[in-house]
Prior knowledge:
The chain has helices spanning 9-15, 20-26, 38-44, 49-63, 66-73, 76-109, 115-151, 164-187, 199-237. By secondary structure, it is mostly helical.
Amino acid sequence: MQNLQTKTVREIALEMPITTRVFEEFKIDYCCHGNTLFDEACRNVGAEPEVVMEKLDGVIETLGDREHDWVADASLGELIDHIVDAHHVFTRDEMGQLTPLMAKVATRHGDHYDYLLRLKELFALLVDDLGPHMMKEEMVLFPYVKKLESQHMSAAIPPFGTVQNPVRMMRIEHEAVGDILKEMRAITNDYTLPEGACPSFTALYHRLAHLEADLHQHIHLENNILFPRAVELEQKTFPLLVE
Ligand SMILES: [Fe+2]
Ligand SMILES: [Fe+2]
């Protein structure tokens, strides 16, 4: 593989999306704090860069970069539809189903494992953040970006001034989500189940870890692909718009 030392994990994830599988495995943050050079990002999670590199080579060799063509060639409208259909719908469904499951597990096992009570609080915070966040994207930001792409100059100047304002806000909210996910993972010792955990406890951990991985992909598509392209398109369309 090419020399990764000079690249950030964000750049690597953008060039070869399949690498995000390895970043997930090593818990390397490529979405919210992805502007970190590869070696440093590995060491931040206590992993040897050579070991991660070996894994990356294996994944690229067996799976290739099939996703790359799709994302690179997608219009902004197609990217947005994919984000909403694949990630927003899944996140809403999981938040709806996991809320009662989380409550059930915390009620049954919270006496014995008190971190479950904090986990329940954190999950409630996550739901409270993500619901309005996705709504703002769907109601305000995404429609403007779609209009900008389809109508160019005849798209109305948005009430928020420039797309850079909501983009900045969405990035801040993504960081908050990233921090909550990190704490959830830390207090559950990387979602390690206690001996003899019941099926509800097991399902909860499994699904929270899956939701976390999906949110990382989702935020990566927005922070690293959609938002920069939307800002660039707006600057080309309305060069005089300033922040
Ligand atoms: Fe989103
Ligand atoms: Fe978002």
